[in-house]
Amino acid sequence: MGKKTTHKFKAEISQLLDILVHSLYTNKEIFLRELVSNASDALEKYRFQSSSAENGTDDSQPLEIRIETDEEAGTLTVTDTGVGMTREEVMANIGTIAHSGTAQIAKMAEEGKESLDTLIGRFGVGFYSVYMVADEVTVKTRSMHPDSPVIAWTSDGRTDYKLQELDEDMPHGTSITVQLMDDLKSQFTNKDHIKQVLTRHSNFVNFPIMVGDERVNTVPALWREPKFQIKPEQYAEFYKFLTYDSEAPFDTMHTSVDAPVQFNALMFIPPKSTDFLTGMNRDNWGLDLYVRRVLIQRQNKDLLPEYLSFVRGVVDTEDLPLNISRETLQDNVLMRKISSTLTKQVLSHLEKMAADNADRYAEFWKEHGSIFKAGYMDFLHKDRYAKLVRFDSSALEGTDSLTSLAEYVSRAREGQKEIYYAYGASREALALNPHLEMFRRKGIEVLYLYEPIDEFAMDTIREFEEFKLVAAEHADPAALNGFETKDEDKQDVPELNEEQSSTLDKLMARIKEVLGDSVSEVKVSARLSDSPVCLSNPDGHVTSSMDKIMRAVSKDTSIPVKVLEVNPDHELVRNMIDIYTKNENDPFVEQAARQLYESALLLEGYLTDPHALVGRIQSLLTQSSGWYVKAEK
Ligand code: ADP
Ligand code: MG
Predict the structure, then answer these.
(1) Same domain, 530 and 581
(2) Counting CB atoms within 10 angstroms of each CB, which of 251, 333, 370, 534 has the fewest?
(3) Residue 480: CB within 6 Å of ligand 1?
(4) Could you tell me if 211 and 226 lie in one domain?
(5) How far, in Å, is the centroid of ligand 2 from the Cα of 229?
(6) What is the pLDDT of residues 144-194, one digit of tens each?
(7) Looking at the structure, do residues 166 and 288 belong to the same domain, yes or no?
(8) What DSSP assignment string belongs to 46-105?
(9) Closest residue (by CA) to atom 18 of ligand 1?
């Protein structure tokens, strides 16, 4: 047995230890994470060094971490079969300054500028965090290098530590015995509690963690394994473990990146959307961040943008310090690099899926499209986003069909320079939308939007392959008129003669008089064919649906003042011209004007009180049925 020597800690360490010993920090269990992580590092180093030829070792020690407790003595021991330390290494690693930040932490904690909680996270006090729970710590270690003696290091964590060479035999590695503080003894000698703590913080440590005979970390760090060695079942198992999902993932992305930053990522697209951006589940997204297999943060929200929040999984990097805090993570340059690489990878993955298998992509879109659409805010990837969004369209049949903007462009009519879209409650509603009559007549495709977010997306994309995105209701009828009408839709309506034309002008003036300030203008429409009238926006910038969103936001329940467009070729309007010619004051003109206006309001979703409208319909039906009965007789 060697002579026992006493060594003073460096001043900064003493200071730090003093703070830790007297801390009221509640999350004391993280000391175990730190010890296990050091053990894991030591095993990793051993594995690396023993794999090089000159250090070839012959022993058959299992590479593992053991945790033993002694209730009576009030101790907890963490043992690993890693590299171990020589006397000099012990002194250098846990006697002098181990972290350049130590002095700084001590200073900051002393000045009370930051809570210990933040500081432990930010700088990582690793080994010394054990003094939050320990009255005394004994480290016994033997280096893997041949003929290394066993070294014992003991300290109560106050001012000094004792070193001694022991005669006993032990395999390479390190064993750290923690003499627990009285009030923490029962907690940290309780095997079940320890297992819980380990599952919480160290579940994916890549070496077995044994508590007694039981291995605690049952799920290996799958993301670190070479891809070709992993079976789909293993991915599925891990996915289920991670998400508590009962089904296998829809898709798996497993990557390993070395530049510009090193990381491994294992990401999944779930088979079902969880709608976590609304309601209760709002925060339930994000990738778990590991640093060297040690969990740093669950559901980190900086690794992927919110519109990719349907992606679940883990990221593990070598390049971040183990104890980086959440605050520093947010504006960490490496994190930004990882995030930017991950985002690109997910987008590429989706692009490939869309190119290789449109049906599969449609399946993906059905579940996660609504969330993905929020990506219109990602200006950096605007072009890629525009290629990945899908819409229903007037050119498609059936309910499950989706088109990309590229497909729209490929179907565009010759000379067409714009992509048209319209917002509506459903396919059926849009098929009856008067604003789209012109498009139907000309056989020009219109994208059907059903969610408010779609319109924001359109506003942001603005242009696709030199096609401008234009709301159908803003399309210039004159430009559309240039396209030839589909034969089956050609209508043989006789032109208005001069007299009829001038009556039409007077009729419209009369309608304006009847409707007063509820409409800003009554004018002849160029876009209508099947409907007698429609309402359009006076300024022509905001679509009616966008207008509705803005009104909802500002809680404006008034009925907007719009332009009433009249279709002079419609039978009803022609009849009105005849009636007006016979008698300018025929009450039918007024009745019809109000009825047409309110029906148009109803179609646009603005009619809040249908009483007048229903009353008029009923009296018209009564009248017309009377004529019908008379005619029969
Ligand atoms: P870090 O792990 O960030 O380096 P720590 O304070 O946790 O900081 O540990 C300080 C150093 O002590 C480690 O870098 C390592 O060299 C040494 N060390 C700690 N625990 C062990 C162990 N179980 N086996 C070998 N070396 C260890
Ligand atoms: Mg450490």
Answers:
(1) yes
(2) 333
(3) no
(4) no
(5) 30
(6) 998 899 999 999 988 889 999 999 989 999 999 999 999 999 999 999 999
(7) no
(8) HHHHHHSGGG---------EEEEEETTTTEEEEEE-S----HHHHHHHHTS---TTHHHH
(9) 38
Please give the structure tokens belonging to residue 512: 């304006």
Domain that holds residue 403: 391-489
If asked whether residues 144 and 58 sit together in one domain, one would say: yes
**342 with 256, same domain?**
yes
Any atom of ligand 1 within 6 Å of the Cβ of 531: no
Q: What is the CATH number of the domain that holds 450?
A: 3.40.50.11260
Between CA 595 and CA 497 the distance in angstroms is 27
The two tokens of residue 6 are 């006493």
User: Which pLDDT band, with edges at 50, 70 and 90, does 341 fall under?
Assistant: very high
Query: What are 531-576's pLDDT values in tens digits?
Result: 999 998 887 678 888 888 888 888 888 888 999 999 999 999 999 9
Q: Which of 148, 166, 180, 150 is nearest to 75 (CA)?
A: 180
Cα(128) to centroid(ligand 2), Å: 9
Q: Is the pLDDT of residue 242 over 90?
A: no
Identify the three-state secondary structure at position 435. helix
Is 82's C-beta closer than 6 angstroms to any atom of ligand 1? yes
d(CA 454, CA 428): 18
CB neighbours of residue 404 within 10 Å: 20
Judgement on whether residues 248 and 163 belong to the same structural domain of the protein: no
Q: How many distinct structural domains can be found in the chain? A: 4
Same domain, 17 and 51: yes
Q: Return the best residue to mutate from 10, 16, 33, 41 for the ligand 1 pocket (most ligand atoms within 8 A of CB).
A: 41
| Measured distance CA(466)–CA(104) in Å, rounded | 57
Residue 368 forms part of a structural domain: no
Secondary structure (3-state) at 157: coil
165 contacts 148 by C-beta, under 8 angstroms = no
Q: Closest ligand 1 atom to the C-alpha of 80?
A: 23
Q: Which two tokens stand for residue 544?
A: 């009616």
For 415, the 3-state DSSP assignment is coil
Among 33, 35, 38, name the best residue to mutate to test ligand 1's pocket (greatest count of ligand atoms within 8 A of Cβ).
38
- Is 294 a pocket residue for ligand 1 (Cβ < 6 Å)? no
On whether both 253 and 157 belong to a single domain, the answer is no
Distance from C-alpha of 630 to C-alpha of 623, rounded to nearest angstrom: 11
Q: For 261-317, what is the HEC assignment?
A: CCEEEEEEECCCCCCCCCHHHCCCCCEEEEECCEEEEEEECCCCCHHHCCCEEEEEE
CA distance 534 to 594: 13
Q: What are the tens digits of pLDDT across the range 277-294?
A: 444 456 778 999 988 877
Which residue bears the tokens 């309910």?
399
CA distance 422 to 208: 59
DSSP 590-616: HHHHHHHHHHHHHHHT-----HHHHHH
Contacts of 53 by beta carbon, 8 Å cutoff, 6+ apart:
none
